[in-house]
Amino acid sequence: MKNKDSQKIKVLHLSRWYPNRYDPMPGLFIQRHAEAVSKYCDVGVVYVHAVEYAGQTQRYELQLEQINGVPTALVYYKNPCKNFFLIGKLIKVYRFYKANKIGIRAINTELEQIDLIHVHILTRLGVIALFNKVFRNVPYVISEHWSRYLPLTNEFKGGFRKWATRVVVKHASAVTTVTQNLADAMQNHGLKNPNYKVLANVVTDDFLKFQKNEKPGGAKTTFIHVSCFEDKSKNISGLLHVILSLSKKRNDFILKLVGDGMDFEFLKQYAIDLGLDNKTVEFIGLLEGKELVNQMATADVMVVFSNYENFPVVINESFALGIPVIATRVGGISEFVNKKNGILLEAGNQIELENLLSSYLDGELQFDGKMIMKKARQQFSPDEIGKEMYNLYLKALN
User: Fold this and answer.
1) DSSP 179-239
2) What pLDDT does residue 222 have?
3) Whole-number pLDDT of residue 246
4) In the chain, count of helices (H) and strands (E)?
């Protein structure tokens, strides 16, 4: 599998989330970051995944492959039996680190050396990076994507976890977040580093090169929602209530729901229980690549009605297709969504969302799709984001 240039910087990406055999959705944005920067340096990825005994025959299973030109080590390891209590937790931690060791050894063989480590999501992977810096003089950078630091979620807890995270962040060469909002939240928790940087999510070539056709006259307006179908944060149930209320007043629109996840079947049944038929709400399911692009390109507006959020990549993708976004003012969304490319509303305000959707249907809200598309394709391209990451690596190594 080795085909790397010995003169290039060799970067190991350690990722807490990543597409895997059980779910192709988690960490797609991380995969895109790795692929974007692989244009400028040699990159390898390690991701480990705990599996219940029933689904895993080996204690550790290494799956090493080239994914879009990036050598990727996926290591699946057995989850200890839950009735072991404290011992079970210790075994799980041990296996997590051993699985990472197996993956790192495989990628180190592929790259022939590792000059720098890029950690995606703290804290345990950061400990591995810190160990390598202290004992092997390998610097590391961090990209944090988790919304647990935000006041609304308040999930960053535990004295030891906080202490360890502060140490890991302090010794990183740089810390990137997808929004300034998340960077501020991390620093408010005492996670200090002089080199915080906002690094946007990447939009793939499938979106950047797509040529959108004009919609035929007389067609219904299409609202679309794309997510991982986790209702606690995404508030899809609230969106369905808004659509129900709007459908009682007019029938010139349809809502398409794209994606899959833990609450998909529940929400599909919930829509039926509300009395919403497939002429008003269509559950598309999981789409990827060109199929996702083709579906999103049929939409007039992307709707994000989240209770809390960092910054979903579907907003970047919508902009790249020239689609405006109606979204809640949570997380870092307001850093990207403005009056030129969409409109913001308060989280959970169903009346406000219904009024905005009605205003769009009545032609009172209008946007310049070509302008939205042009700016997004410059701002979120793999070339642009890849260069930013590469420059970050150069600074870390110097």
Assistant:
1) SHHHHHHHHHTT---S-EEE-PPPPPHHHHT--PPPPPTTPPEEEEEEE---HHHH-HHHH
2) 97
3) 98
4) 14, 14
CATH number of 10-202+381-397: 3.40.50.2000
DSSP letter (8 states) at residue 257: E
Structure tokens given for 261:
């996840």
Same fold, 10-202+381-397 and 205-378: yes
Would strands 70-78 and 60-67 be described as parallel, antiparallel, or unpaired?
A: antiparallel
**Can you give the residue ranges of every domain in the chain?**
10-202+381-397, 205-378
DSSP state of 20: -
Please provide the DSSP assignment of 21-50 as one string.
SS-S-TTHHHHHHHHHHTTTSEEEEEEEEE
**What's the whole-model pTM score?**
0.84
Nearest-angstrom CA–CA distance, 63 and 85 = 29
Please say whether the beta carbons of 188 and 162 come within 8 A: no
> If you classify domain 205-378 with CATH, what class do you get?
alpha beta
What is the reported pLDDT for 360?
97
Q: Which residues of the chain have pLDDT under 50?
A: none
Distance CA(93)–CA(84), nearest Å, equals: 13
SS3 content of the chain, % helix, strand, coil (to 5): 40, 20, 35
Percent of the chain past pLDDT 70, that is, above it, reads: 95
